[in-house]
Amino acid sequence: KQWYQRRVAITAGVPGSDFSIGCDTALNSIIWAVDSIKQSAASTRKRVFIVEVMGGNSGYLAVLSGLASGADAVYIPEEPVNIDTLQCDAYRVMDKIDQGVYRGIIIRNENSSPQYKNDFVSALYAEEGKDRFVTRSAVLGHIQQGYSPSPFDRCLAAQLAYKVYRDIEKKLIQTTFTSQDIVVVGIQGSTTAFSPVSTLDMDIKKRVPITNWWISLKPLIQILALPPRSRSEKVSATEACSHCT
Prior knowledge:
single chain; 245 residues; alpha/beta; four-stranded parallel β-sheet; three-stranded mixed β-sheet; 8 helices; 39% helix; elongated
């Protein structure tokens, strides 16, 4: 008997696949919620929201939702945050607001830090920016698991199921099996592939991949969050913050 595994999880942080069934639905739900929050922030003057998203030990949802929604900073488990980072990001938001962008969005993964939770981060931003902006906290909770699956997730489920059944047909004549026959089916790059469980590059304790393709997108969030003047002058995110130089 050969064992196949299709991963269904909103986090996309599953070894053997770049995407999991459900991650696109969750991402769309988060974007809908954050866009609604941004409308609230834009309708008032100088308001900053600290938004907590799900994802467990994977920062996929935080990074992709931060990039798509135009967040000012994103905090994820893969890159531990410290008090200096939080303060510097708060100062960058202050500089941005001083230049006329009267809203801020901070995306925080639920497991980004056991100490710096949403209440703490919100309190820190509120204290640092008390003369510049008002801080609000929003925990999206299970609403981000979505309702009806997105077209991408529906097609992904069908694609993976088709791949498995075709492989089963080929293996019907096989009489002996090894550990290499216990596999995960998933999307790797532009192809659908099988990966033996014994060879997966993963953190067993946290049940997430050791390397993630989307982690390289995180610096882009900080670049796009630069104040308009800093972006036109082509200065770095660190240089854009007068408090961090």
